[in-house]
Amino acid sequence: MEAHRSKDVLIQGNSIAPQPSFAESYAPFPEQAAESSGFVPTGLWGDREYRQSFRVESKTSVFRSLRSDTDRQQWFYVPPSFCPKTGFPEEISMRSDHRIARCFLTLGLAPLGLLVALTLPSLAQSRGDIVVPGTGVQLNQVGDDFEEESWDFIPNNPKSTEDIDENQRQPMGKSTNGRWYEGAKRGHPDIVKRVPTPPGGLPGSQGSMLMKSLYTGIPNRPSNKMHQDDFICNVQYRLGGTLKVSQSPNVTTRVFIPPLDEWEKRNGPHFAFRAAVETTIMENKSKFLFSSKSQKDEVYWPGLFILRGTKQVEGKNVPYAYFRVRADRNGGDFLGPEIPETGWWTLGLSFTPDGLVHYFARQGVEELRREDYIATSMPYGYRCEELRSFFYNVVNGDNGRDWTTDWIVDDPKLYILQTPRMAKK
Q1: What is the rounded (10 degree) CA torsion for 334, 253, 195, 407?
Q2: How far is CA 169 from the centre of its chain?
Q3: What is the sign, positive or negative, of the torsion defined by CA atoms of 221, 226, 231, 235?
Q4: Separation CA 142–CA 388 (nearest Å)
């Protein structure tokens, strides 16, 4: 499936129903990984079509030589931390989707039931090299705690709908503390305000931020199609530029997931925590009989979506919530863990010097840990170079009748491991 980067579509494909977890990785032969890194990561290795596989149970294991149709065969890798304690996963099947081959692995006993979506540069990378969001020096110029009782958002309506009708409707809305602004592409949520922190929030927190919308498309013109609004954290202007991934920028937030009976009654995406990141691509240009290539900055938006689905329980359709991850190397979203309980959750994204994006989620408000790791990916096949901002999405069916689910967030923070900029108090 082609990735619709320019439109930043909400869902790839024709269905939003949960699919099996999969690893869609493009890796060298394990021998090549060993040559480049000095060891082969422990875990389960298998070829793209699972014609051959083997286990590496220690970094010094001697593995048998694997050969298939070509020395450039594609491989997936599952680290042992994602395998059941009783052994490695055994139920593995494969299906071919046009040109895209996907390996589906059932990990019922694995933490969060997830896989790592590893890509070529990361296969020789140990899990210890992945930055846990919340690590490093906090940049206090960015983010918010919503504790000021005077906190407010000035909407400057009508909001932008550039993604629909190319109308930005300047000036953009912004918060009174200068830390947030309306997205020029899709506009701000209809309601953005400070509210009391729901029970179970961060200790001592008195204020959080509520976001909700009725018209996520063009104001007062319901489309009966799924649309989203953006609320963007001001990173570039407050720091004086973007953050290079050599600094391992990483972001965290707390989000209050309301009880399912309080959600908009619609399956599909309802909320997202995402980042705007940048890479450099080569663009082909043609003029008369001549063609040339030039470098171009390309912005894309990886992140974690929260969705509503339904499943059969004792013969009844029961709603549940789950994560989807944006995106694999082809631009498609892939399945994340089910959300076993609503209430407060901590989400995080990190961006490392190898150009990869790492995704984390934890129930509750405690800081993220290594065991909260969900996945590593190279969205769209792009090597991430710079972090521009991070932001929230709220989503609904834009029918002029049903509001989005009420989404409350708290304490979004930005961290770096290395930087010439000094964190200010």
Answers
A1: 0
A2: 29
A3: negative
A4: 12
Distance CA 179, CA 413 (A): 12
Measured at the CA of 412, the angle between CA 402 and CA 155, to 5 degrees, comes to 50
Tell me the per-residue pLDDT of 194-247, one tens digit each, with 9 for 90 and over: 999 999 999 999 999 999 999 999 999 999 999 999 999 999 999 999 999 999
> DSSP 3-state assignment of 260?
helix
Q: CA triplet 205, 361, 93: central angle to 5 degrees?
A: 165
Q: 180 burial class (0-12, 13-18, 19+ CB within 10 angstroms)? A: buried
Token output for 192: 């953005």
Which CATH number fits the domain 137-416, given the four candidates 3.30.70, 2.60.40, 2.60.120, 2.30.230? 2.60.120
Judged by average pLDDT, the poorest of 2-16, 129-143, 321-335, 373-387 is: 2-16
Positive or negative, the Cα torsion across 26, 372, 278, 286? positive
Secondary structure class of 37 (helix, strand, coil)? helix
The residue extents of the domains of the chain are 22-129, 137-416
